[in-house]
Specification:
Length: 387
């Protein structure tokens, strides 16, 4: 089940290699747990050995070194600090791309065992939101998401604060060993993301962990937007980008192009299907990567509509938590719980829920199911001076 203990929080600083060493040392046990899980899950799914898997991910190294050499250095430092191989840390950072390229059952897995699991093997789940102006009730800009992924990874999530002068300071929620996923920075820019699925060929593109961190490394919204539009990803992913000014945009990014959604009445919500348009390559054959995405979207939109009635920041958070705790479709839904009939290694659930106030800089996380866990304010404000 998702973790009920406090989520681990670490702060790293210095040059990329040194930041990585600090990270690896502070999260060595969580990284070991993450590697243990993926060793089991990926070998079971593909029939490949762990050595074959960690060797195969080297295909993403040249493009990653070209587009983000500082993040590859950070990964090398993580490996050194955690006492594991660089190839294993790279695997943790390209696990979504690897799974996408190796969809399909492993040998010996029956159809009955795959019924409720294979449809979301290749992506992160997630229900993301953006609220501003009249949509937030208070006029503050609120962003966040329910992060849905494999249940057994819940104990290996952590919060990382990266002090990286002259780049913005970044606060992220990640799986241990990863250099990027979801978060916000000291320039007031946030990124929340959801997997989209769909087949776009096997040409090697940039891994999502790097793209997302590169966005959060930007000091202004125009540069962050340019990073998403100009970087060719390996897999399709939705990116909900926002700025403390109240600007927000949702980008459905694919290896073949980008489409976008602007807020309506100060609100954007996104789940795991194409909402702006279905890419031409998928026309006539597109199936949402997870059927419950079609259920989650109207449910979360209805719940978030209530936030406009809030008369204080605390009421806003209460309404957001209620929206993100919706159980229509249980055990699936906005707040997803593990399906008891799914194999444990493939069970899926909400790992944590986040709600960030870009106006004040408060970063809140509910570690586990938001229906059971209150949002707690992190000890760092986005706009705290670096040290």
């Amino acid at each position: 089940m998702p973790a009920t203990t406090p989520i681990r929080m670490i702060e790293i600083s210095g040059a990329p290699r040194e930041r990585g060493r600090l990270y690896g040392d502070a999260a060595a046990d969580l990284i070991a747990g993450s590697l243990e899980y993926y060793r089991e899950a990926l070998t079971q799914q593909t029939g490949m050995s762990w050595a074959e898997i960690t060797a195969s991910v080297s295909q993403w190294l040249p493009i990653s070194e070209q587009i983000a050499p500082h993040l590859i250095e950070e990964m090398r430092g993580i490996a050194e600090g955690a006492g594991v191989s660089f190839a294993e840390i790279l695997t943790l950072n390209v696990r979504g791309e690897f799974v996408y390229d190796h969809q399909g059952p492993a040998k010996g897995v029956t159809a009955a065992a795959r019924v409720d699991d294979d449809e979301r093997d290749a992506v992160d789940g997630c229900t993301s939101f953006f609220l501003t102006g009249e949509g937030s009730g208070t006029g503050h800009t609120l962003v966040g998401q329910n992060w849905d992924w494999r249940t057994r990874t819940a104990g290996t999530t952590l919060i990382v604060r990266v002090v990286q002068d002259p780049l913005p300071t970044v606060i992220m929620q990640v799986e241990a060993g990863q250099v990027g996923r979801h978060g916000a920075n000291s320039a007031g820019i946030s990124l929340n993301a959801n997997g989209l699925g769909g087949s776009f060929g096997k040409a090697v593109g940039v891994p999502q962990t790097l793209i997302r961190r590169l966005v959060l490394d930007q000091g202004d919204i125009a540069s962050a937007l340019r990073t998403l539009v100009k970087t060719r990803p390996h897999i399709a992913s939705n990116a909900l980008l926002a700025d403390r000014s109240g600007f927000g945009i949702d980008l459905e990014t694919t290896p073949s192009g980008v489409d976008w959604i602007y807020p309506e009445r100060g609100v954007i919500a996104h789940t795991n299907h194409f909402q702006a348009s279905v890419p031409p390559q998928l026309a006539g054959s597109y199936l949402p990567v997870s059927a419950d995405s079609l259920l989650r979207l109207p449910r979360v939109e209805a719940g978030l509509a209530r936030v406009a009635m809030a008369e204080s920041p605390e009421e806003s958070y209460a309404f957001v938590r209620e929206a993100m705790s919706d159980h229509i479709g249980f055990p699936e839904g906005v707040c997803t719980h593990p399906h008891p009939d799914s194999p444990p290694v493939k069970q899926w659930s909400t790992l944590l829920s986040s709600c960030v106030d870009l106006t004040t800089g408060e970063y809140r996380v509910a570690n586990g199911f938001p229906c059971e866990t209150e949002y707690e304010v992190l000890p760092w404000n986005l706009y705290d001076p670096t040290h």
